[in-house]
Amino acid sequence: MMTKDDLLKLVGDAMTKGFAVFAPVRQEGGLLLARTEDPGSIDLDHVLTVNTLKDVMLPRCETLVRFDLEKPGVTRVEEDAGRVLVFGSRPCDAAGLDILDSILIDQVRDERYAGRRARTVIMSLACSIFDEACFCASMGYGPHDATGSDVLVLPSGDRYILRAITEKGQGFLDELGVPAEAEAEPDKPPELERTVDISRIKEWLDSNFDSPKWKTVSDNCVSCGTCFYLCPTCHCFDIIDEAGISRGERNRIWDCCSFSGFTKMAAHQPRVGRPARYRQRVMHKFKYTVDNVDKTACVGDGRCIRHCPYGVDICEILNALVGEG
Amino acid sequence: MTSDRENALKQKVRELITGGDPDLIVGYGKTYAGDGVRPLFVRTASDADRLVWNDGCVHNLSTYLMREPCLEHIRKGGRVGIVAKGCDVRAILTLIQEKQIKRDSVHIIGVTCDGVRDTDGAEIQVKCRACPWQVPSVYDDLIGDEAEVRPIEGDPLEDIKTIEALPQGERWRFWTDALSRCIKCYACRQACPLCYCRECITEKSRPQWIEKAPSLRGNLAYHFIRAMHLAGRCISCGECSRACPVDIPVDRLTRYLSGTVEEAFGYRPGVDPDEEPFFVTFADDDPEDFIR
User: Fold this and answer.
1) ipTM for this model
2) How do residues A255-272 score in pLDDT, each as one tens digit?
3) What are the counts of helices (DSSP H) followed by strands (DSSP E) for chain B?
4) Which residues lie below 8 Å from residue A24, measured CB to CB, with a gap of 6+?
5) Most B CBs within 10 Å, among A226, A264, A314, to test the B interface
């Protein structure tokens, strides 16, 4: 059992041992999961950060190679191989990593992603609070779910229980000198208000690619990338060359199925119009990923609902798709 | 009274939709879970019963005019109804001025406004202060009583003046700090009723004019180009900043530039639908000779 101060001290110790620490920090742009060097800046009293663990594992922009006309050839940009600790992210975000692992490690090995995963310890903080957009339980997870975490921190009264979930997590606790102790009883996980039944959605999507429902179900969507960019599991990316007169770099950046240029090829755009692009989003999460890796690419963190400027609600849309009419 | 306006609005929209012209109306409804406000597409009389009107009706619904399903509807010769506050009407009039839609294609259901707020408990938006458009300037139907409108106090430019007052270096730091947060989700562009280019310069890849990467350099390029493109066009609805997930006050750039155009040329967008837009006209007696 640890107090909040003990926990923050542990994070400070990890910093001393050379871990680069990412944690929820209140900044100008809201509550963000960001690099911090001050354990005192960490905020533990919130529902969710605006951004997700994806920002750490699959950054929104990473330079892959650099090129220079004066020195023909390309230089691979290697990353800092130091160890990383993510502290205080939520179970839903960690569950998102479990899905990304299946896609970016098991299915096709993405070396950069796999490398970051291997040297990062995920220390999730189980939830005691939630809001009206949270629906992790409906997706098979829950406020105290351990999927994807290396260490799970569970609240117990005004103290915290540390539970090693993986060998890496146990190794981390050992290294930091956290003694093993008889486990106390954690608080009961809160019961979420929002539920959605996804049991029929896969079957419906399998046979309704051309359903007229797609036309109106996303009326409210204005095709921005907020839901994608704040989603813990969306992982489509674009590779772009950005060059000056003699030097340049090749970057990998996030891409998004809402955008009109998404999947546009030399002669053809297979997804014209917002309804077709919104369908891609639903299909990718609730059908294609299920077909490919046997997981639904949604963890019920609710950010797409919480942050949509125009009130698009994925639960409502899933209900409307499988419902009558 | 808010509820009076809501009832009058429901009744009017029901009447219009039952009459079949327009047969698609965009208004405000409740969020799926909870009492928040979001846009609502009305196609039937029972949809009309779900309309709301309160101070959470912050969205500028005219942004839907230039996208599906409204645009499709207009192209087929249909008319689209829009529930609009005075500020929103200015966006509709700008679209008309810029010949994107015809006045006849849109049925403006203007609503008198006492100011709006982003979320429950938030303050009335800065843009609403000293608003001269509490009664919309142009409408087909008006909901609410002009006589009951009470002025909203305050300085609508306060946030811009705060930045303007900073020394140059700090101003630069303010914007580089803010724009380095940008994740290039393009919510600002998509929310903007006047960012209607069919292909945005950010999407051009042959040649690629600006950096696509969400790096500070790429972000500055995107936001500065967008701001320049909205100079003398921005009608200060603030939707770009409201839509931003990382709270970048991008509207201060576009509002500032519209202020600059107004100061230099006495032009305000979206006031008179028959007026030529600022960028397509010049005066014979313009003091600058490069333009002649």
Assistant:
1) 0.92
2) 998 888 888 877 788 888
3) 10, 5
4) A31, A32, A33, A42, A43, A44, A46, A49, A88, A89
5) A226
